[in-house]
Amino acid sequence: MCYGDDARPPLPPISGAASDQGDIILTSSDGVRNAAYFARAAKPTGAGMVVLPDVRGLHQFYKELAQRFAEAGIDSVAIDYFARTAGMGDRSESFDYMPHVQQTTAETIAADTAAAMEHLRSKDGGAVKSVFTVGFCFGGSNSWNQSALNPGLDGCIGFYGRPQRAEPFLSRMKAPLLVLIAGDDAATPLPQSLEFVDKLKSAGVRVESHVYEGAPHSFFDRSYKQWKDACDDAWRRMLDFVKSQS
């Protein structure tokens, strides 16, 4: 599990307001109805963000992160992965997520991401002109994978993703990637992440990357005050990436 119930996403460096937010139901191309959470920007930039959670699915951290993106002018939707096997329900720390993680596939995650993209492009979602993904841990590699699996994305951002989950899709990746690496990540050793970046470049994938020296897995958390500078820098890099690719 990447973030516990007490974790809170850091604030963006330039913060406005969200005009509306709340729970919604999205329908994927295979007919599955899935829980999601939307946040609309009060001052939209025309960009949209699909938030892909960690292994626990759509819990409070990611709902709040969608709000933070909206406050930065980016209409956002955070999705869940597990409607097919767990139904729509509680994703607190008591949720036994691993049996459901093991039943996900790249194709179903891509379908759920596509449903969120469609919502963002609709009038109700903000009618955005550009769409990005961002994910963390399990969601980090899922986000990178969307570069190959969901045509029409403008960029894919991943924090502390697992390279081995994304490498099978390298040859099909189209959208540029932003790879944000925790330098002291116990789950993914730094050499693996650096090798992944090299493989992306060799495959011709447009990629930006940054290593946060000494930072642990899940450092992007407001409760980790010692990593505030890293969190601020990560926000700056994400917002610059969205602006440059929109």
Would you mind describing this structure in some detail?
- The structure is a single chain.
- This protein has 246 residues and is α/β, with parallel strands linked by helices.
- It is built from eight helices and eight strands, in the order E-E-E-H-E-H-H-H-E-H-E-H-E-H-E-H.
- The chain has one domain: Rossmann fold (3-Layer(aba) Sandwich), CATH 3.40.50.1820.
- It has an eight-stranded mixed beta sheet with strand order 1-2-4-3-5-6-7-8, with helices on both faces.
- Helix 4 crosses helix 5.
- It is globular, with a radius of gyration of 16 Å.
- The model has no long low-confidence stretch (mean pLDDT 95).
* Count of beta strands: 8
The CATH superfamily is identified as Alpha/Beta hydrolase fold, catalytic domain
Quaternary? single chain
Structural class: alpha/beta
Net shape: globular
The overall number of domains is: 1
Instruction: Work out the strand percent.
Output: 15-25%
- Terminal CA distance reads 32 Å
Calculate the mean pLDDT score and round it: 95
Q: Describe the main β-sheet briefly.
A: 8 strands, mixed
Element layout with pairings:
Layout lengths: L17 E10 L5 E9 L5 E6 L7 H12 L3 E5 L3 H4 L11 H4 L4 H16 L8 E7 L1 H12 L5 E5 L3 H4 L10 E6 L7 H13 L4 E6 L15 H18 L1
Give a brief rundown of this model.
This protein is α/β, with parallel strands linked by helices. Helices cover 34% and strands 22% of the residues.
